[in-house]
């Protein structure tokens, strides 16, 4: 069996992936599954390498860095910081179709989809009995399906309607696909995740791969994010995830200690091993340290939220303050004598980042219970209190469905800050416009004046030029 190059679609995606990217060595490395012509895949070893190539492809700007720009800087958790105009324009809701980050994200995610599709196209046709021993062939297909679903989940939340590319383009028409509706994209995401949840490994010591727990957790998040959430399904898949053996890590601060990678709370975690290995995490070096103005500065609004809650444990684990008066840069939001930096990524190029952890799913379960009925807040309350109890906070004061809804929103913000979730939480709850327009700087001034027209990224201009069907 042979795999083919992804022709113009692949080249377009890969070109966008590197456009305006950071100048890091890993962008110059060839992924394991890159091909320069027809390549034969004839045995289990080749199938495993093809799948590994799909995972290795995730170590790109989107998953290392832009997840925080999109999830926290776009929202009210952080300012762009630094001097990168593309980041600043996203922060201020001024990004247009030529924004470098927007093009890079589109290209990175479609490149990841290409890699997953190569696995799904080729592995079923490899004639090697070893692939079917212990259900390994289906596990490989399940992992690739889960990866593809995750990439489309990011695309549909960032861009809305996008093309569904599920196989190697065979002709010009397939190289220039029209956008599928948001509902159609979600239908495909759910189909892929259901296959993954049925066929993937139940657990794995390597928390960087797709397992049943990951697939079920993603299904819970997907059903909560659809244009019309299905709270019964959210609850179903939260329960299936929780039953998979995860448990809250004892120390919130310890979650971000490099000694506690792949802990009991981690469901899916990026696996960084430093530049001496294959996967180095350059993100901490651009948010932490001195000598030049760092990116992703914690916002006044978030610091105030921590302080108003008396949430010192999570604040100090998430943010640290430093005297930066000797630095040669200026800042519009913070006095340099007490300047905030993100504190969740502390191990330089070996800091892992969580894609999903149990606290996220527990709070999502509480949300599903609260939304299911007017009295559901009472059953949601013990879950919220469990999360609060870990950081020595008392019981939530919520006393009805409406107050519990806001309590869960706040709890998710403080618990998951700088992990790439905040903006997508505001989007799926239809709270983005109201929350952003009430966000204030340190002097009490409103920072934003947005509308629903600002909620999605524009399709990149380079993609429109290549494919007129995505206008």
From TrEMBL:
Domain SusD-like N-terminal: 25-223
Gene3D superfamilies (UniProt xref): 1.25.40.390
Gene Ontology cellular-component terms listed: cell outer membrane
UniProt entry keywords in alphabetical sequence: Cell outer membrane, Membrane, Signal
Family assignment from sequence similarity: Belongs to the SusD family.
A Pfam family reported for this protein in Swiss-Prot or TrEMBL: SusD_RagB
Superkingdom, natural source: Bacteria
Localization in the cell: Cell outer membrane
Protein's recorded name: RagB/SusD family nutrient uptake outer membrane protein
Native source organism of the sequence: Pedobacter polaris
Residue stretches making up the RagB/SusD domain: 343-470
């Amino acid at each position: 069996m042979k795999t083919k190059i992804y022709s113009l679609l692949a080249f377009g995606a890969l070109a966008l992936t590197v456009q305006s990217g950071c100048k890091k060595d890993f962008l110059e490395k060839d992924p394991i599954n890159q091909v320069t012509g027809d390549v034969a895949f004839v045995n289990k070893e080749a199938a495993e390498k093809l799948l590994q190539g799909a995972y290795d492809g995730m170590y790109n700007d989107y998953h290392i860095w832009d997840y925080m720009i999109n999830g926290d800087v776009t929202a009210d958790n952080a300012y762009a910081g630094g001097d990168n105009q593309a980041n600043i324009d996203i922060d201020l809701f001024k990004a247009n179709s030529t924004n470098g980050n927007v093009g890079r994200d589109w290209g990175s995610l479609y490149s990841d989809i290409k890699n997953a599709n190569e696995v799904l196209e080729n592995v079923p046709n490899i004639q090697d009995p070893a692939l079917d021993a212990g259900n390994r062939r289906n596990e490989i297909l399940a992992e690739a399906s889960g990866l593809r679903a995750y990439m489309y989940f990011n695309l549909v939340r960032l861009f809305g309607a996008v093309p569904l590319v599920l196989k190697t383009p065979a002709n010009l028409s397939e190289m220039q696909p029209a956008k599928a509706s948001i509902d159609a994209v979600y239908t495909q995401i759910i189909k892929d995740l259901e296959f993954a949840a049925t066929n993937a490994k139940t657990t794995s010591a390597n928390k960087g791969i797709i397992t049943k727990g990951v697939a079920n957790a993603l299904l819970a998040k997907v059903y909560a994010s659809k244009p019309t959430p299905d709270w019964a399904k959210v609850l179903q898949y939260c329960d299936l995830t929780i039953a998979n053996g995860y448990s809250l890590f004892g120390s919130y601060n310890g979650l971000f200690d490099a000694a506690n990678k792949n802990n009991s709370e981690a469901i899916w975690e990026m696996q960084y091993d430093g530049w001496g290995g294959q996967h180095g995490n350059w993100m901490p070096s651009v948010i932490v340290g001195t000598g030049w103005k760092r990116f992703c500065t914690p916002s006044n609004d978030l610091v105030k939220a921590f302080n108003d809650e008396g949430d010192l444990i999570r604040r100090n684990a998430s943010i640290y303050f430093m005297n930066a008066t000797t630095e040669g840069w200026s800042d519009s939001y913070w006095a340099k004598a007490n300047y905030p930096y993100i504190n969740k990524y502390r191990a330089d190029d070996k800091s892992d980042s969580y894609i999903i952890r149990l606290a996220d799913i527990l709070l999502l379960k509480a949300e599903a219970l609260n939304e299911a009925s007017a009295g559901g807040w009472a059953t949601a309350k013990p879950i919220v209190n469990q999360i609060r109890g870990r950081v020595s906070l008392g019981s939530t004061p919520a006393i009805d469905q409406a107050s519990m809804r806001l309590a869960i929103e706040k709890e998710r913000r403080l618990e998951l800050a700088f992990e790439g979730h905040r903006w997508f939480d505001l989007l799926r709850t239809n709270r983005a416009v109201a929350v952003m327009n009430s966000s204030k700087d340190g002097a009490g001034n409103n920072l934003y004046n947005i509308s629903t027209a600002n909620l999605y990224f524009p399709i990149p201009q380079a993609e429109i030029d290549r494919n007129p069907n995505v206008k």
